[in-house]
Design goal:
alpha/beta; Rossmann fold; 8 helices; 34% helix
Amino acid sequence: MKIFDTKQTRNDYFKTQIARSRKKFSFCKVSHTHVKTWKNVLATNFNVIDNYKGPILCLGTRNGREIDLFRSVFYQNKMVNILVHLLEIKRNGWNSCFPLIEGMRKSSLDNIIENSVTGVELNPDVKRPDVFIGSFDEMPLKWADTFGILYSNSFDQSCDPYKSAKEWIRVLRDGGYFVYADIIYPELVTKWDRSSKLSFGLVTVSIDDLNSFIRHNGFATLHSLLAKFFVCRNYEAVYQKS
């Protein structure tokens, strides 16, 4: 399975991805409601919340807002979550008009514990104690079997999906969950993006190919939902490490 379809050396790929991250740095695909929905899916269908042990890792997190949302929804109290929801605005995707509220109590990479929420981002412009600067297909060796939940909406940007999947399996505990969500773009949109000087690196992903690839790399599909969004489609799924 080949998703990232540009032929580049690894160093050139890194440069391309960092440039794209900088271009979309303030853009967040994820809302507070999205994360709350995924938590409810896990809690309702798989009883994860009652028996949940282990940190959360967000992959390809850009400015880190996804990390703040997961921390708020999974670990902050009800009042904080009400404020985060009320202060959220639809601008550059989803953002907050008062980010200090959702930015409270950041985790530290130096002390990853059961209620930590951390992230991985290739862009060195990120300056946060909870973000590892590097590729999500080359994470610290000490992270093996560490995380209970992985989240990503950037699998389509992997230059080597097999290497990425192998690495994600390595850092996820047995029985851990992989939450995936992304926008599925029509071929016409991605062809236009590739030919544009303002390209954002949009990629068309086949859901059938993705799920087949996931199954063959050690994950079982527990939940999936595909919903139309204008000319695009929103896809979300929960996979479990077998």
